[in-house]
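Handout, section 3.2

Students often ask what a structure token actually looks like in practice. Rather than define it abstractly, here is a full record for ABC transporter ATP-binding protein. The first block is the sequence as you would receive it.
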Amino acid sequence: MIDMKNVSKRIDDKYILSNINLHVNKGSIFGIIGENGAGKTTLIKCLTGIYKVNEGSILIDGEEIFDNNIVKQRIGYVSDENQYFSSFKVKELLKFYKKTYNDFSQERFDELNKKFKIPVERRIRELSKGMKMRVAILLNLSIKPDILILDEPTSGLDPVIKKEIMSIILDEVASRGVTVFISSHHLDHIERICDNVAIIKNGEIKHMSSIDDAKNSIKKLQVVFKSTVDVKEDLSSLNDVIKVETIGRVNYIITKNYSKDFEKKLYDMGADFIEIIDMSLEDMFIYFVEEEDKNE
């Protein structure tokens, strides 16, 4: 559905994105994570056709996105900062969306607003940050998009509303086959709802996999050796080791490619005890960033 091929984006003389290659299947949820300034928002602005890429291509069902109004009709986009017409009342913004999007549904908005309670008589400038985010999300769900692109969609929202929004997004995917591309600092949300995830750093994709594959391959092992060994030195030959921490006789080894063969290598080195500790997506992200910082 979404194909990014060798995408690079330069602003002034600086490359913000370099050689990005991504594929997102229809009806899946794809998460992009990274530090502030890593290039997430620039990537999303290229994907929505706000920015024109300098190199490569971005295709949706085989069609270029930039300057393509027909394709853009199918896309809902929620920015991390929603700069709407501040003097408009919410009900006036609804009229604007009706004229802009062919499939906009007032009935869908009204149905969702029973839960989100947006005051349609209020002007945008009178709303809190969280309420503006609610408006943006409801408007973009109401255009009945084929693709929903979300840049920090839960920013400023309370926990109850966050949970409700995640539930609605999952329902859109299940009931209508909507494709979702999401960026968020709340990695627990990404871990819970995404099928696939990519880590971006300095404008480059450093890791990409399904959530399940990441959990199966990236592991933290608690290891005790029979005798004192120079663990860091002995493990330096194993390319799949991200980090080693030693506390007393206990060694915490993080690997990005866990397998039974990897365990066997540890036993061959003299391991007496090995316990696997599952890691959260947040833990994985932190270790990957640390590894990249070390290699730079």
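Discussion prompt for tutorial groups: The chain has a mean pLDDT of 89. How would you have guessed this from the sequence alone?
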